[in-house]
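#lab-general

N.A. 3:47 PM
ok so I finally got the sequence cleaned up, no stray characters, all 233 residues accounted for. can someone with queue access submit it? mine expired

B.Y. 3:52 PM
send it over

N.A. 3:53 PM
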Amino acid sequence: MNRDRILTLAIVGAIALVGILGWVIGVSPILSQVAAADDERNSVTSTNDLNATKLVALKKQFENIGETQAKLDKLRGSIPAVPDMPTLLRTIKEYGDGQGITLKSIEVSGVTAYVAPVAATPAVTPGSPAVTSTPTPSPAAPTTSTTAPAATPASPSSGMHVIPIKISVSGTYEQVMAFAGAIQSGPRLFLVTAFGLSSVKGLFTGDLTGNVYALPAPLTVVAPASTATATTP
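B.Y. 4:20 PM
back already:
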């Protein structure tokens, strides 16, 4: 009787051991693979949802590509790749003719590399008031020439270029002010840095000093092609 019980218990234990080994060896890895596949599927689904959201945003932006391109073309026109001074001089003359003023002179300086201004911090001694010195501008020699001098190109590596311009016009107060406004709101960027206005017997003279700019396209450096040299025995 005891022998039968021991044999029965051994058989039951063997069956349980086989079940455990079958779970560990066969079922558990499959369940782990299923869980990993579920995680990967969820990750792919999240990525697809994110890409779909980006695609919708890109489609919406592409709908306005024409408007964006028009803005880009306008900006390129305001700061062209080359100085193109003849076109600018014709435009200035058209502004003057449109306002009915007399264009007395135009002085164009050479092209130089643009350098961003750096704000200087003045040293102030404690207890003493800050003193600001105002430089006295030297009088400019009168000129009646409207021919722009030949501009010397700046180095291509200097980035944006600046071309200083001085313009002197005469007319009524309204005409001079309208000309100053027109030249600053035209298609070519013209930044006025100084403006002087004087009058003699009701005739006003406006002296504008400002800058126009040019932004050359980046240069494309092409590597020289390698050449093979054949030797003749």
